[in-house]
Amino acid sequence: MKYMEKMEWIAPCHFGLESVLKREIQDLGYEIVQVEDGRVTFRGGMDAVCRANIFLRTAERILLKAGCFRAVTFEELFQRTKDIPWERYIPENGRFWVTKAASVKSRLFSPSDIQSVMKKAMVERMKSVYHTEWFTEDGAPYPVRVFLMKDMVTIGIDTTGVSLHKRGYRPAAGKAPIAENLAAALIMLTPWRKDRILVDPFCGSGTIPIEAAMMAANIAPGMNREFTAEEWANLVDRKYWYEAIDEAHDLMNTDIDTDIQGYDIDGEVLKTARRNAADAGVEHLIHFQRREVSQLSHPGKYGFIITNPPYGERLEEKEALPDLYREFGESFRKLDTWSAYMITSYEDAERYFGRRADKNRKLYNGMIRTYFYQFTGPKPPKQKR
Questions:
Q1: What pLDDT, in 10s, does the model give residues 59-77?
Q2: CATH number of the domain encompassing residue 99
């Protein structure tokens, strides 16, 4: 299957960010097949697996769609899984297993049972095709993921491996980090562009400023990591990986001027942020500084604050939050031409910030339901030509 046959690919994402991911996939030139809660399905040739893994900033992973069917009994699940032509994807020596099963509002709900039934079905199919009773499974890995929604079973083979939020620059995180792909999506939900000011006054280990700097320099998020499908010599020609990396190098431009700043009160976590920025190749594009939110200021106009302040979930005691959000709100009001965007699960955020959000959007940060509050400032005057 090394020729450019069009396949369907599934890109899971954070709930609430499907529209951002859809736009990213379209920008890569691929056709959208379906948008559902927490995932986008698209169509593309074998180059799509390489380009999607390397370029998409907001996806969790990329799955090769193997099948979709309805099943309400384990017998149905077994038979329909066995009907899938697994030999098209997995060679005789391939390592294959069902790495994750998720079930929502479905009659089949036990992940471990779903996993074992599907593995047995795959083995039976492969036995009949390869005419063997024993598989060495000492070749490339083909991890299978399955999700059941209202008895509809969707099966994909994971091309990614470690989730795409792992860019390769953050081995060490601060307390309560925000995932890289969520940080990238938050930035994309704002009108910020690389020629505008961006400040994160609660930057922690630097994820939001680093993701912004990578966008400004057009650094593809997957350039410095490996992917499971790189080992799939039977499916993906190496040239597609080389071409995608060459494309990423051609698009990158780190010789730019930016005004991206990250503040935090913890000097140690700022050391981590600087180290992470260096690993991402953007340390020269970000200014990190130890600073209280009450000291938030900037001489520039029409800037953006994009931040993930403490929620009171783990970090801060709830009692400290009213003062923190009040200080944040007071500092923001002095920046009268600026816009602020914050993700938080703190239910009194607007009250203590001192202003109703112009818009808010429900998002999930891991399992925590949060809101992305948007306080929009005036647009800068149009430049005279």
A1: 999 999 999 999 999 999 9
A2: 3.30.2130.30
Last residue of a domain, one of 127, 158, 189: 158
Is 276 found in the same domain as 144? no
| Cα end-to-end distance, the chain, whole Å | 53
Q: Can you tell me the distance from the alpha carbon of 98 to that of 114, in angstroms, rounded to the nearest whole number? A: 9
The predicted model scores a pTM of 0.95
Do residues 47 and 149 both lie within one domain?
Answer: yes
Domain extent for 118: 7-158
| Claim to verify: residue 124 and residue 207 sit in the same structural domain | no
Least confident piece of the model among 40-54, 162-176, 238-252, 271-285: 162-176
* pLDDT classification of 326: cutoffs 50, 70, 90: very high
- Check residue 173 and give its pLDDT: 57
Number of structural domains (the chain) is 2
3-state secondary structure of 117: helix
pLDDT above 70 coverage of the chain, percent: 96
Contact 330, 275 (CB under 8 A): no
Residues 145 and 261 in one domain: no
Tell me if 229 is assigned to some domain: no
User: What is residue 311's predicted lDDT score, i.e. its pLDDT?
Assistant: 86
Distance CA 147, CA 143 (A): 14
Residue 287 or residue 176, greater confidence: 287
Could you tell me which of 268, 287, 263, 290 has the C-alpha nearest to residue 277? 287
Q: What is the CATH number of the domain that holds 339?
A: 3.40.50.150
Say if 59 falls within a structural domain. yes
Quick: pLDDT tens for 138-151.
999 999 999 999 99
The string of DSSP letters for 325-366 reads HHHHHHHHHHSTT-EEEEEE--TTHHHHHTS--SEEEEEEET
| Distance separating alpha carbons of residues 6 and 176, to the nearest angstrom | 40
Does 148 share its domain with 88?
A: yes
- For the record, the structure tokens of 343 come out as 């993700």
Report the Cα 308 to chain-centroid distance in Å: 16
Domain for residue 147, yes or no?
A: yes
Contact between 349 and 306 under an 8 Å Cβ cutoff? The reply is: no
CB count in 10 Å sphere of residue 326: 16
Q: Does the residue 164 lie in any domain?
A: no
pLDDT in tens, 93-137: 999 999 999 999 999 999 999 999 999 999 999 999 999 999 999
